[in-house]
Design goal:
Blueprint: H1 3-16, H2 21-30, H3 42-55, H4 61-72, H5 77-90, H6 98-108, H7 113-131, H8 134-142, H9 146-153, H10 165-174, H11 181-195, H12 199-208, H13 214-225
Helix pairs in contact: 1-3, 1-4, 3-5, 4-5, 4-6, 5-7, 6-7, 7-9, 8-9, 9-11, 10-11, 11-12, 11-13, 12-13
Length: about 230
């Protein structure tokens, strides 16, 4: 049995033993009914993924990607969250092609802010820090898919003083005329992060982009307001 099949076979019954219909209904409403939920709280879900992962061998990069894709195909939203939990546990096993071979497909499949941002945190940011992947992120930035755009804009979140400020601001500039909420919000978060390490760059960006979406401006000013 493959790693993916074994992982899912052990995970499914463990999750459903913890199902809570009331919690599921609340999650479905909060997430605008984008998918059904089992109704498992985040701490319990993560503990379950960790327990199952610990009982199995450490996967190769390809096995990790295959397991994430298999989980992504399952209906309930928690399975996509479990995929990101699993990647977070084993991300160091991912090779330089993991983002292109697997994560890109995950970003554009069943996309919403929850999975796109989670993949950003557990895979995109750490793996671009480790491998660079500059050409791939540039491709995402130029894509017609807004979720890949969002992932590109936010690909250095959490880097603090290691952030390539010039590059991130260029990506923000590339999409500064967007009216799409999820893009504008991504720009705001990127600017808020940069404000912590280079507030002058953020102030200059705001001055040079007077028509920037209000949501982005508000997020940027929140960062500057803490200084």
């Amino acid at each position: 049995m493959s790693f993916a099949m074994e992982f899912v076979a052990q995970l499914e019954p463990a999750l459903f033993r913890q199902s809570d219909r009331k919690r599921a209904i609340g999650a479905e409403a909060y997430m605008k009914d984008i998918a059904p939920f089992i109704g498992v709280a985040t701490p319990e879900r993560r503990a379950t993924v960790k327990k199952v992962a610990k009982a199995l061998k450490v996967p190769t990069s390809e096995e990790l990607g295959a397991a994430a894709r298999k989980l992504w195909k399952l209906e309930e939203r928690e399975y996509q969250y479990c995929a990101t939990d699993l990647i977070q546990i084993h991300w160091k096993m991912a090779d330089k092609n993991f983002l292109a071979d697997h994560v890109e497909n995950l970003i554009i499949s069943k996309p919403w802010w929850d999975t796109v941002d989670s993949l950003g945190s557990v895979a995109v940011s750490p793996l671009t820090d480790k491998y660079g992947c500059e050409k791939l992120i540039e491709k995402w930035n130029k894509s017609r898919n807004m979720w890949l755009n969002r992932a590109a804009i936010q690909h250095q979140r959490g880097r603090k003083y290691e952030t390539d400020v010039e590059l991130v601001l260029q990506y923000c500039d590339d999409h500064s005329d967007s009216k799409e909420f999820f893009i504008v919000k991504a720009i705001g978060w990127a600017l808020r992060d940069i404000s912590k390490v280079n507030p002058r760059a953020v102030r200059d960006f705001l001055k040079s982009h007077p028509d920037l979406g209000r949501v982005a401006v508000r997020e940027a000013e929140r960062g500057l307001g803490r200084l």
